[in-house]
């Protein structure tokens, strides 16, 4: 089972035999299959950048959020 992050988009899991599974943000992607020795998976998803305003506490300031990380400067 693979956790699909809530903040991700276009979550895709591809096995070495080119089978592709897609996931829904904020859910668990369950894959029931027999795995072969040395089989690999490739997980990819988008991490969009969001601009967060400082609001009333920090007027005229912004922070950048990319995936689970919030980047700011004081």
Helix and strand topology:
Layout: E1 2-3, E2 9-15, E3 20-22, E4 28-29, E5 41-46, E6 49-53, E7 62-66, E8 69-71
Antiparallel strand pairs: 1-4, 2-3, 2-5, 6-7, 7-8
What is this entry, summarized?
With 74 residues, the protein is mainly beta.
Q: Would you write up a description of this structure?
A:
The chain is mainly beta and 74 residues long. Helices cover 0% and strands 45% of the residues. The chain is built from no helices and eight strands. A three-stranded antiparallel sheet has the order 3-2-5, with no helix packed on it. Strands 6-7-8 form a three-stranded antiparallel sheet, with no helix packed on it. The chain has a two-stranded antiparallel sheet with strand order 1-4. Strand 2 and strand 3 (20-22) form a beta hairpin. The protein starts with a strand and ends with a strand. The mean pLDDT is 91.
List keywords for this structure.
mainly beta; three-stranded antiparallel β-sheet; 74 residues; single chain; elongated
Arrangement of strands in the largest sheet: 3-2-5
Please give the share of residues in helix.
Answer: under 10%
- Hey, roughly how much beta strand do the residues contain? 35-45%
Number of strands: 8
The secondary structure category is mainly beta
Roughly how many Å apart are the termini?
40 Å
H and E order: EEEEEEEE
Instruction: Give the rounded overall mean pLDDT.
Output: 91
Radius of gyration: 18 Å
- Tally of contiguous helical segments: 0
Q: Ranges with pLDDT <50 over ≥5 residues?
A: none
**How would you sum up the major sheet?**
3 strands, antiparallel
Shape call:
elongated
């Amino acid at each position: 089972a693979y956790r699909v992050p809530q903040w991700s988009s276009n979550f895709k899991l591809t096995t070495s035999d080119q089978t592709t599974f897609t996931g829904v943000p904020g859910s668990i992607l369950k894959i029931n299959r027999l795995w072969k020795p040395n089989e690999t998976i490739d997980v990819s998803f988008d991490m969009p950048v969001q601009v967060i305003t400082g609001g009333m506490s920090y007027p005229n300031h912004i922070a950048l959020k990319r995936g689970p990380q919030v980047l700011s400067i004081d």
